[in-house]
Amino acid sequence: MSQLSNRREFVAGLGRSGAALAAGSWLRGIGYAQSRGPARAVLQRTRFRSEMDRRLLGAFLEHLGRAIYTGVYEPGSKLADARGFRQDVVAEVKGLGVPIMRYPGGNFVSGYNWLDGVGPKDKRPTVLERAWNSLETNQFGTNEFIEWCRLVGTEPLLGFNLGTATPEQAVAYVEYCNLDKGTRWSELRREHGYEAPHNVRYWCLGNEMDGPWQMGHMTAREYGRKARDSARQIRVVDPSTQLIACGSSNTILPTYLVWDREVLEECYDQVDGISLHNYYGNTPALTGNDSARYLAMNLDMERQIQEIAAVCDYVQGVLKSRKRLWLSFDEWNVWYRARGGRFANGQRKFAPPLLEEVYNLEDALLVGGFLNTLLRQSERVRVGCLAQIVNVIAPLVTNETSVLRQSIYYPYAWALKYAHGRVLDPLVESETYPIRAEGLRADFARDDSVPYVDLAATLDPRNGQLCLLMLNRDLQAERDLVLDCRDFTPTRMLACETLTGADLKASNTFERPTLVAPRPLEAPRPGATMTFKLPARSYSVAHIATA
Ligand code: AHR
């Protein structure tokens, strides 16, 4: 794939043009160099990082707050269909084209008895849900979720309880979903009206078991053995499953990386992937409330991916295993305002409004950055889930009469719509700005140089369409990006839009739903060399036909 001679040629070219690789900076590892003047990127059809798995652009739906109830399921609403599914939300999620949806949690899953949520609805118990101190009526459960997935055209990614539940209950769940017939749990599914198996391929072995907040929290060795035991039995039930072990749930826990190593030392042979989670925010501790530092946080995500991949490779080496694990970044987003305290305590109510984060322009720009990072790292990250999809830290928010697109909806929608096929490996040079460690939380405290321009690019071999996703982190000035396409030629601009604005803190509301929304970006004439003028504080997309 990568052609060394091209890299050498490019690096030599950078030297001639006065650019310098940032010495000692890990930016070099993602193909970035420092320069003066306009940002430049060299693209080659033959230099690509991965054949992207669409699952990279998935999302997450948890039994939490108003995500399920009044988010996707609201029988009695004028907007609901006969099954109680909100049709406006179905239309939005279907329109987005989300490839995979993680369910049912999250912290919720670690206390969940899946049997409560299947069978006749009038027999299902209302229980006290202990992760979010809420009432769970179980009127929506696994089978409703599978039906909803079919309706919106997404693949289910199910998690099971490895907190309060036993491996036996977890394995029974897989049998209920995936075995054809003739056994206790497959026959129960059939009794419930689902003759054909659901054939769920991707499974999470619990959730955030390293977190002291998690029901059933345990040590890495204990979890690793429980995961191994469950996985071995699941392989008997259905060898086609892809199993994801719980990795570290953020980068600040003292067990970060050690947890992952110990878990994998126990269960490496039995699993296929390991999960990563992280949430980001513009706070005094994380960024010093500095928007320029905030917009660099996708590079922190990038570093986390590289660190966890290194642990996987270490364990692979120690075990002399032939298997290389992939990563599942199955919870990521901005989340820092509606967090903790009253935002996370349902007060024993049904469908309480929890974690209802309101997103602004700068959050959307950073979400664009996260998507660029995931694309860049797609050779290793196979699954990714924006957390979450509706009402709870979400791009979509419902009220009784409609659904609102928050600012972060747009970069996500662009990646889903336009990023297809191969993720290219561009060589980028950009001016940089410094970020400082002083005063910041240890996992985000670093002195480094951050490129103003961040680029991700895909090229679809089926139709030759090029997608460029461009973040301009410069808060003050427009920046030029000169694109040099070496072995293909852009011929026609299919779409060119930008998300920007004067006020980084502007948000959409039901009253003003399009305050933060894309607008056309002046497109350069398509050709082997093109210059995009990226507005200050912007995330832009170009979709281009090529020859
Ligand atoms: O997505 C919200 C919560 O964040 C999830 O339930 C949990 O896994 C994470 O800590």
Gist of the model:
This protein is α/β, with parallel strands linked by helices and 547 residues long.
General description of the model:
The protein is of the alpha/beta class. It is built from twelve helices and 27 strands. The strands form six sheets. It has an eight-stranded parallel β-barrel with strand order 4-5-8-9-10-11-12-14, surrounded by five helices. The chain has a seven-stranded antiparallel beta sheet with strand order 3-17-21-22-27-24-25, covered by helices on one side. Strand 15 and strand 16 form a beta hairpin. The radius of gyration is 23 Å and the shape is globular. Alpha-L-arabinofuranose binds next to loops.
What are its keywords?
binds alpha-L-arabinofuranose; alpha/beta; 547 residues; seven-stranded antiparallel β-sheet
* DSSP strand content: 15-25%
The rounded distance between the terminal residues' Cα atoms is 20 Å
- The stretches of 5 or more residues where confidence is low (pLDDT under 50) are 1-5, 10-23
Rounded mean pLDDT is 95
List the quaternary state of the chains: single chain
Q: Quickly give the structural class.
A: alpha/beta
Helix content: 25-40%
Please give the count of helices: 12
What is the topology, as strand order, of the major beta sheet? Answer: 4-5-8-9-10-11-12-14
Cofactors and ligands: alpha-L-arabinofuranose
> Would you report the number of β strands?
27
User: Rough shape?
Assistant: globular
Question: Describe the biggest sheet?
Answer: 8 strands, parallel, barrel
Radius of gyration: 23 Å
Secondary-structure topology with pairs:
Blueprint: H1 4-16, E1 32-34, E2 39-43, E3 48-51, E4 58-60, H2 87-96, E5 100-103, E6 127-129, E7 134-136, H3 142-152, E8 155-160, H4 167-178, H5 184-191, E9 202-205, H6 220-237, E10 242-245, H7 258-267, E11 273-280, H8 284-287, H9 291-294, H10 297-319, E12 326-334, E13 349-350, H11 361-376, E14 381-387, E15 396-398, E16 403-405, H12 409-418, E17 422-424, E18 427-430, E19 432-435, E20 448-451, E21 453-460, E22 465-472, E23 479-485, E24 490-499, E25 519-520, E26 529-534, E27 538-546
Parallel strand pairs: 1-18, 2-23, 4-5, 4-14, 5-8, 7-13, 8-9, 9-10, 10-11, 11-12, 12-14
Antiparallel strand pairs: 2-18, 3-17, 6-7, 15-16, 17-21, 19-20, 21-22, 22-27, 23-26, 24-25, 24-27
Helix pairs in contact: 4-5, 4-6, 6-7, 7-10, 10-11, 11-12
The chain binds alpha-L-arabinofuranose (AHR).
